[in-house]
DNA sequence: CGAGAGCTGTTCAAATTTGAACGGCAGGAG
DNA sequence: CTCCTGCCGTTCAAATTTGAACAGCTCTCG
């Protein structure tokens, strides 16, 4: 017997519009950032998260989780960005084994310069193409999808 | 002056629900396929596209475009899959410089075994979490986003 | 025919990512 | 205190991805 509930036409349309589109959009953003600023999208995101954090700093693991990135991958990228002066490593005060990644002034300046072009691109390829209704449906639906996956993985492990 | 049209709250919600969720979903699918079948998501997609093609075969470039992958990356993956017997290379009849990637019987068998678990996971993490309305909005909206990017890049280059 | 522009798929080195293994630290049970 | 389990960030080798460079082929214009 075949218990598999295959996707119907509408579901298939949604599926084929989801991952491929995300891949395309990510590629567009990556190119824009790389050409204009010499930053990868991941590096940009790192700056965004650090900049938004309490003291411009976050612990490595916390940052990796927010970025949906592996810890070792983050270690590598922070290394690159530290070399470029965008970020600095600092020991964590209350835990000898902890390390804080902290955004530098140069990092904040870079973010400030990069943000307008980035947001413009996000609008151009995604947001301005969507109707407000679609925008809301995506925020609600995909937000729920995201939260469920995160919640489900919380009881589990990391990477 | 600052002409930047920043994202309003709803747009930001959609943005923060899009790429991160796609990343998470892709990770889930990759894990499921790798654990259960030893296939990466990319390899699975290659099988899907070849299986759906006219004679179970596509030219390298055509396949790369559908997969949203670089040509060199595809060369590598086809190499891996050829080694594993899932795929075979065949010269293109009407063009000496062309190469066809063709799915093997073993490849079709693998796909048949992998598909149910894959679809089930797609439902579990994504489709079954969305309401029909959201599903439609995603299909319509993101489909439009995708088509615009593809169309815009057609006049341009490849990778 | 013959030069030239544009494809095709591959190659290569460099960059990045992955996942397991590791040494050091934290925190609770005995 | 001391062992033990678990977390932290890093390290490492292997896998993969990237992008430019390449050699061969195709097609068109002259």
How would you describe the overall organization of this protein?
- The structure is a homodimer of 159-residue chains.
- Chain A is mostly helical.
- Chain A contains 6 helices and 3 strands; from the N terminus they run ααβααββαα.
- In chain A, strands 1-3-2 form a 3-stranded antiparallel beta sheet.
- In chain A, a hairpin with a 7-residue loop joins β2 (87-91) and β3 (99-103).
- In chain A, α1 packs across α5 and α3 crosses α4 (71-83).
- At the A-B interface, α1, α5 and α6 of A face α1, α5 and α6 of B.
- Chain A binds a DNA duplex (30 and 30 nucleotides) through α3 and α4.
Write the layout of secondary structure elements.
Two copies of one chain form a homodimer.
Chain A: H1 9-37, H2 41-52, E1 57-59, H3 60-67, H4 71-83, E2 87-91, E3 99-103, H5 105-125, H6 132-154
Chain A binds a DNA duplex (30 and 30 nucleotides) through helix 3 and helix 4.
Domain HTH marR-type (chains A, B): 1-147
GO biological process, one term (chains A, B): response to stress
GO molecular function, one term (chains A, B): DNA-binding transcription factor activity
Categorize the overall geometry of chain A.
Answer: globular
Can you tell me the CATH class of the largest domain in chain A? Mainly Alpha
Number of domains of chain A: 2
Helix-strand sequence of chain A? HHEHHEEHH
As a whole number of angstroms, the C-alpha radius of gyration of chain A is 19 Å
The rounded distance between the terminal residues' Cα atoms of chain A is 36 Å
CATH homologous superfamily assignment of the largest domain in chain A = Winged helix-like DNA-binding domain superfamily/Winged helix DNA-binding domain
The chain pair forming the largest interface, with residue counts per chain, is:
A-B, 55 and 54 residues
Low-confidence stretches of chain A: none
């Amino acid at each position: 017997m075949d218990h598999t509930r295959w996707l119907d036409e509408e579901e298939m349309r949604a599926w084929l519009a989801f991952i491929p589109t995300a891949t395309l959009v990510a590629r567009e953003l990556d190119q824009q950032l790389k050409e204009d600023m010499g930053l990868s999208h991941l590096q940009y995101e790192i700056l965004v998260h650090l900049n938004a954090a309490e003291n411009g700093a976050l612990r490595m693991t916390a940052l990796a989780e927010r970025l949906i990135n592996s810890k070792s991958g983050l270690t590598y990228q922070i290394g690159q960005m530290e070399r470029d002066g965008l970020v600095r490593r600092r020991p964590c005060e209350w835990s000898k084994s902890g390390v804080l990644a902290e955004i530098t002034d140069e990092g904040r300046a870079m973010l400030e310069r990069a943000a307008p072009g980035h947001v413009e691109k996000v609008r151009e390829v995604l947001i301005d193409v969507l109707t407000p209704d679609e925008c809301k449906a995506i925020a609600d639906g995909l937000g729920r999808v995201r939260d469920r996956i995160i919640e489900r993985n919380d009881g589990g492990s990391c990477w």
